[in-house]
Specification:
With about 190 residues, the protein is of the alpha/beta class. About 10% of the residues lie in helices and about 20% in strands. The protein has two helices and 15 strands. The strands form four sheets. Strands 3-5-7-9-11-13 form a six-stranded parallel sheet, with no helix packed on it. Strand 1 and strand 2 form a beta hairpin. It is globular.
């Protein structure tokens, strides 16, 4: 600990809280796989390298008010996050917050570009506000049971026509498949475009 970086440690000398008023650039894999950190506040950070806090199952709160760029794998597999604050972030890399079922809402007012697998496997997200985004990678919010509602609202906000490309029909579900070709044929017959 120094005047600008304060660590709180548990009885095993493992970092459990970090309050950093000094660091501006976070290096690759910083604090990855720690498993004990519950809170991170980094008031001066402007750039975050790849894999920061990757697979830290204990973290629930992170505040980085001045970060502008977030690299790949940021908070990936951090399953307890419920408080995030990134008001100035402009670019987000791939796998941002992949796998988390706690966070309900996220406000990213200045984000412009988002990589692949953004919040993939986050089934609890109900509100995502990104008024300035321009580009989104593949698998955006995949596996979120509220995605359709979200995309409909998003299209209205952006004045873009919402078109539902795939609709389920009442075709009977096949339990036993003979081969992959038959399985594919059945899948396409179960849906229409």
């Amino acid at each position: 600990s120094c005047d600008k970086v304060v660590f709180e440690v548990n009885r095993y000398n493992r970092i459990i809280k970090l309050n950093d008023d000094y660091t501006k650039t976070i290096s690759y894999a910083a604090l990855a796989h720690s498993g004990y950190i519950s809170q991170v506040v980094m008031s001066k950070a402007v750039e975050c390298g790849d894999s920061f806090l990757l697979e830290d199952g204990a973290i629930s709160k992170i505040e980085m008010p001045h970060v502008r760029h977030i690299g790949d794998n940021f908070l990936r597999m951090c399953t307890r996050i419920n408080v995030l604050s990134f008001p100035e972030v402009e670019t987000i890399g791939n796998y941002f917050m992949r796998i988390n079922d706690v966070i309900k809402e996220l406000y990213l007012p200045n984000v412009v570009t988002i990589g692949d697998y953004f919040m993939d496997l986050n089934r609890s997200v109900e509100s995502l506000i990104m008024p300035n985004f321009k580009a989104v990678g593949s698998w955006f919010m995949a596996s979120n049971n509220k995605v359709k509602t979200f995309t409909e609202r998003l299209s209205r906000e952006l004045n873009i026509q919402f078109v539902e490309l795939i609709k389920k029909t009442d075709a009977p579900q096949q339990k036993n498949m003979e081969n992959a070709a038959f399985q594919c044929k059945n899948a396409t017959n179960s849906f229409f475009m």
